[in-house]
Amino acid sequence: MAQQVRGVIARSKGAPVEVVTVVVPDPGPGEAVVKVQACGVCHTDLHYREGGINDEFPFLLGHEAAGVVESVGEGVTDVAPGDFVVLNWRAVCGDCRACRRGRPWYCFATHNAKQKMTLTDGTELSPALGIGAFAEKTLVAAGQCTKVDPAASPAAAGLLGCGVMAGLGAAINTGGVGRGDSVAVIGCGGVGSAAVLGARLAGASRIIAVDVDARKLAAAQKLGATHTVDSSAADAVEAIRELTGGNGADVVIDAVGRPETYQQAFYARDLAGTVVLVGVPTPEMQLELPLLDVFGRGGALKSSWYGDCLPSRDFPMLIDLYLQGRLDLDAFVSETIPLDGVEQAFERMHKGEVLRSVVLF
Ligand SMILES: NC(=O)c1ccc[n+]([C@@H]2O[C@H](COP(=O)([O-])OP(=O)(O)OC[C@H]3O[C@@H](n4cnc5c(N)ncnc54)[C@H](O)[C@@H]3O)[C@@H](O)[C@H]2O)c1
Ligand SMILES: [Zn+2]
Ligand SMILES: [Zn+2]
After folding, report:
1. Which of 177, 280, 282, 286 is the S-S candidate for 202 at Cβ 3.0 to 4.6 Å?
2. How confident is the model over 14-24, as pLDDT tens digits?
C-alpha cells in the first residue's frame, strides 16, 4: 500500500520550498523504498528551485542521502530490507554503448524508479536527480542504493551521493592524481574541498587551494591543502606557478565552472598537465583560448561528471577509508538541520557560510 510521508518540494520557479505530504508507492519490479536518515543540501537543489535544470515542477528536492532500505520490489537481489545504503544518481544500465565498452562510469542510460511519487491530489513529482530524498521515505531504482558499512554516520555517508564524490572523483578518477603530483584546486566549496581531500588521499605532494573567500581557504587547509591563494587579492596563475617552481601544477581542478576560472586552470597547469572541469557552467558562458596554446601546452582537458565514479566500486571503499580515519567526511557536515530548515540552508549556502547543511531525520 502506498504510504504518506513528509517531503520538501519546489512548487514553482523561485518560490520558497514547502514541506508537504508526499505519497510514496510500494516498490515495483526493480525498485526500492528507502527510509532516509540524512540528506545534504547541494547547490543543484537550489538550481532546481530556480528553474535552472528544467521546468518539470513540482520537484521533490534532495539527493545527497543515506538511509535504510525498507522494502524492495520483484526481482531485486542486490539490496534487501535493512541494508544501510548511500543513494546514487548513477545506477548503471549495463547495456548502453559506454557500459558495453567496459566504461560504466560514463553510463548514458542510468536507471531511476519507473513509478512516480505524487502529492495527495495525484500531482506527479519530479525527484531531484531521480532521488528526491528531502523526504522521510523515497522510491528509487534498486541500483541507486549502494550498500556500505552501517558503522558510518548517515550524515557523512550521504554526502558521497553527490558533491563530495564529485570532488574526490575529479582528483582521483578524472584527474588521475598520483604520488608526488602537484595539484591546484580553484574554488573550495563542498566540491573543491573534496578535491583537496582526494588529492591528499592520492599522495599529491603539493596541494594549492584557491578561493576568493578566506573561510573556504581555512577549511581547505584543514583538509590537506599545503598552500592557499586568495585569488581576490593575488593573480591565481602567477601564484600557482610560483608555488610550483615556475612551472604550473600537474593537475588543476576548476570547481567553480566559469570562463575566467577555467582560463586560470588552463594557464596554471604545467606543460602536458591536466585540467579537470567539475564546476558546472551556465548556458550563456563562452570560452576563448588561442588554439596554438591548446596545442602547444599539450596534456589533457577533461570534464568530470559525478567524479567519474562507479558507486558500487567507490562508495564502499571510501566509507571504509572514512571508518579507518583516513578520509574526513565529517569535516563537510557544517550543521545538521530539520526537514523544514532547507530554505534557510539555501541562504547560508548562498552566503558561503557552510560546506554542507545536512537534514537529519
Ligand atoms: N560535475 C559534477 O558532477 C558536479 C556535482 C556536484 C556539484 N557540481 C558543481 O560544482 C560547483 C561547486 O559546487 P559547490 O557545492 O562546491 O559550491 P559552493 O558554492 O559550495 O563552492 C563554490 C566555491 O567557489 C568559490 N568561488 C566563486 N567564484 C570564484 C572565483 N572566481 N575564483 C575562486 N573561487 C571562487 C566560492 O567562494 C566557493 O567557495 C558547482 O558549479 C556545482 O554545480 C558539479
Ligand atoms: Zn549504461
Ligand atoms: Zn548535488
Report:
1. 177
2. 999 999 999 99
